[in-house]
Amino acid sequence: MILSTVIEQLLGGMVTSIEIFLLTLLFSLPLGLLVAGGRMSGFAPIRWIAKVYISIMRGTPLMLQLIVVFFGPYYLFGMSLSSDYRFIAVIIAFTINYAAYFAEIYRGGIESINSGQYEAAQVLGYSKIETFFIIILPQVIKVVLPSITNEVITLVKDTSLSFVIAIPEMFTVAKQIAAADASIAALLVAGIFYYVFNVLVAFVMARIENKLDYYE
Amino acid sequence: MSLLEIKNLKKSFNDNVVLKDISLSVERGEVLAIIGPSGSGKSTLLRCITGLEQEDSGVIKFDGTFGLVFQNFNLFPHHSVMKNITNAPIRVQKRDKNEVFEHARELLKKMGLEDKEDAYPCELSGGQQQRVSIARALAMNPDILFFDEPTSALDPELTGEILEVIKELAAEKMTMVIVTHEMAFARNVADTIIFMDGGVIVEEGSPDEVFSSDNKRMKEFLGKFYD
User: Fold this and answer.
1) Complex ipTM, two decimals?
2) Can you list the positions of beta strands (E) in A38-163?
3) What share of chain A is helix, strand, coil (3-state, %, to 5)?
4) Environment class of residue A5 by beta-carbon count within 10 Å: exposed (0-12), middle (13-18) or buried (19+)?
5) Which chain B residues are Cβ-neighbours of A214 within 8 angstroms?
6) Based on the number of CB atoms within 10 Å of its own CB, is B17 exposed (0-12), middle (13-18) or buried (19 or more)?
7) β-strand B192-197 against B31-35: which pairing, if any?
8) A215 and B122 in contact by Cβ < 8 A?
9) pTM, rounded to two decimals
10) Do B121 and A123 touch (CB under 8 A)?
């Protein structure tokens, strides 16, 4: 197969990969914050639930989590799900997995903020919610950004794991072409795509880091 | 009636009794300096009054607004000087934006920082940061201003500029409670001095009374500064 046809076929998969990437970030970044809140809760049961959740998400393969989320509802509960569920399952699995990692990153960031910041805010009359969103969170984002960048770059590559439940993202498509052609050209092209995508991600994240460099 | 009145205040951390039955009062326009060795409970007393610690028992009678100036400034590093000063009056006190900005500029001018409104705390010296934090506290129009060792985190050559500002505020009849290690300053600026040791008020009175006290602990403490 000529290269231009390979690229044309990969393009559809590429769009799916980018969709998985963006939707996962959209849901897991806020969910991670919520999980971090649970992990630091003063209420022990919530803290433990968050701890166990994080431990399972980080302690088992993402590929297995994808399989469980996709097949689980049928095998465990006998539910029959629509064909759309395949894509939804990917987003759910990626979101809950990445939220666990993000939660621990946020927690580190939140714990790094000096208690004097909370005290100053309290004395000035800010409510707890205002204190978190106006005073604490902006400082946390600056602290955690390098670690978040790491995870985001890993996510770009991890989208390829969706092949395990036959989502037609780029890696799945590339494998099919490679099998049909008995050539790894398509896989190499996919590799180049992942690399370029990550160079872009690194560039954007560096820009954001620069933007936050106006203090300290 | 006193502006601030404290009766039988007690506070322990686990088994460590930090405040044993503290009573005091502050009148409007009064400057009270609290001195004493480290661990005597002076900072804890201030933290109880300002609500940063919860007292175990006792009564704190105060209605009004207060400001607190911290030892480590605790400015918000991601906000400009202007935003540090204006954000709480606008958001919390719901005051008019223009009025608050005008007030803030006035305060910055008073602090000798009129050219720093767009600067970030990290671009300022320790003394300048502490002056911004005083401006931030004053912007809330407090009835009383508390200082928790306001010069302890500063290099000796920067201490003077903060003490000057506090002196100026005293001259304007600002009510202030100042926890400090600066003996000469306390003597100079305060109307009343309280000497604390071991969680109790050992001496209380005018600067002359307290500094000429025959109390053994007071003499020992002062000896460390003058010998």
Assistant:
1) 0.92
2) none
3) 85, 0, 15
4) exposed
5) 120
6) middle
7) parallel
8) yes
9) 0.88
10) no
